[in-house]
Design a protein that fits this description.
The protein is of the alpha/beta class. The chain contains 5 helices and 6 strands. The strands form 2 sheets. The chain has a 4-stranded mixed β-sheet. A two-stranded antiparallel sheet has the order 1-2. Strand 3 and strand 4 form a beta hairpin.
Amino acid sequence: VYAYDLHDPDPAPVEQPDLLSALRVRGLDLEPIPCGGPDPVTQQREQWTDGANALAVAPGVVTLYDRNLATAEELDRRGFRTVRAEDLLLGRDEVDLEGSARVSILLESHEMSRARGGPHCLSHPIVRDDPE
């Protein structure tokens, strides 16, 4: 991985050991959360069922499919409160999108996932402007 300081008048590549290290140098210290948790077999299974295709709807608030239980459990271990979308829609639970709480919202997947793609992919516009 190479990083460039784009504020430098003559940017030169600076080798970094990995992407997370390069981002950390720029002040962005991220905490990767593995899709499917720590088990490599479960990671592959949940990758296939869109476990990594989550959508961030606010800082610390993500949506993912309810079928990705191992990913939801890993988020729970990392301090995310799990909320079912149905409970939000029916007023049985609430999420403050402007708060500091970490929340994972589980979306029913039995119909939406038929077309393949997770919450992130499903949020893309169907009609796009022509590039100019």
